[in-house]
Amino acid sequence: RIREVLRLYLLPEDNPKDVANNKKILQEAKIIQNQRLDELTAYDTDIDATDNYPHALFLVNIINEFEKETLGKGDKSTANNIRGMLHAIDGFHGLSVTLDEVNADYCDKFVDYLHNEHEGIFGKIKMTTARNYIYLFSSSLNMAVDKGYIKVNPMRLVTVHDRITKERPKKIFLTVDEIKTLMNTQCPVLARPQVKQAFMLCIFTGMMPDNVVNLKWKDIRMQNNRTTVQFKPRKETLTVPLSS
Fold first, then answer.
1. For 131-140, b where at least 16 C-beta lie within 10 A, e where not — what string?
2. CA atoms of 48 and 21, how far apart (whole Å)
3. How far apart are CA 219 and CA 228, in angstroms?
4. 110 neighbors 59 (Cβ within 8 angstroms)
5. Contact, 37 vs 1, CB < 8 A?
6. What angle is formed at CA 173 by the lines to CA 168 and CA 175, rounded to 5 degrees?
7. What is the pLDDT of residues 169-195, one digit of tens each?
8. At CB < 8 A and 24+ separation, what contacts does 99-106 make?
9. CA–CA separation, 21 vs 11, rounded Å?
10. According to the 3-state scheme, what is the secondary structure of 109-176?
């Protein structure tokens, strides 16, 4: 499914003028919806929805034109990424692909190729690079739509999110033995033992440094011989029991 924003808005119907205006807006939205349904239906059934569709135009020509326009704006960095994206397309199905062959199935498999197979100069590309290539690929097809070469960008019919995700740094945790060693080690900064104490508090409660800095006495509570500390790691408030 795809969602397109029409930027048409309905107003509270406080008077007859607003009622008439809303009716007009709804009619306009319905006309646009019907036009888009016709275009998508024609696309899915391989019916040519426009007389200006250049079947002999190669995908590489579109990308080269997109790169030329990008360079014309002075954006050399993006232009270099477009060349990298073109290299990925070459490794996928070659540069002899015509524009009418770039359908939803082609785009869907291209996403999988970037995710699983494509390698750059230094080996397998990172997911952030793959996301960038997909963005540039879709942008080049949007340019083809703007110029009337194709009616619909087929990338709009492909689900990309959750398939190629941003890479997160690997978390490293202290082992129990390392924590015990830390507990038995004197703080290097003799005048500031609070540094070690604050770090130990973070280890046993899951608090972040800013939580410790903002900690107040009122956040530590004692009830029924049980001591707890309250802090807000994000928006919610957490209550964590404190050991002796």
1. bbbbebbbbb
2. 36
3. 8
4. no
5. no
6. 160
7. 666 788 889 988 988 887 766 667 788
8. 99/54, 99/55, 99/57, 99/58, 99/59, 99/62, 99/144, 99/149, 99/150, 100/53, 100/55, 101/59, 102/59, 102/141, 102/154, 103/154, 104/154, 104/157, 104/158, 106/154
9. 8
10. HHHHHHHHCCEECCEECCHHHHHHHHHHHHHHHHHHHHCCCCCCCHHHHCCCCCCCCCCCCCCCCCCH
Q: Are 99 and 58 in contact (CB under 8 A)?
A: yes
Q: Which amino acid is at 126?
A: K
Instruction: Quote the tokens at residue 129.
Output: 């690079």
The amino acid at 67: E
How confident is the model over 42-95, as pLDDT tens digits? 655 554 444 444 445 788 989 999 999 998 888 888 889 999 999 999 999 888
Total length of the chain: 244
pLDDT of residue 49: 46
What's the token pair of residue 47?
Answer: 């019916």
Evaluate whether 128 touches 167 at the Cβ level (below 8 Å).
yes
Query: pLDDT tens digits, residue range 93-152?
Result: 888 888 888 988 899 899 989 888 888 777 788 888 888 899 999 999 999 888 888 888
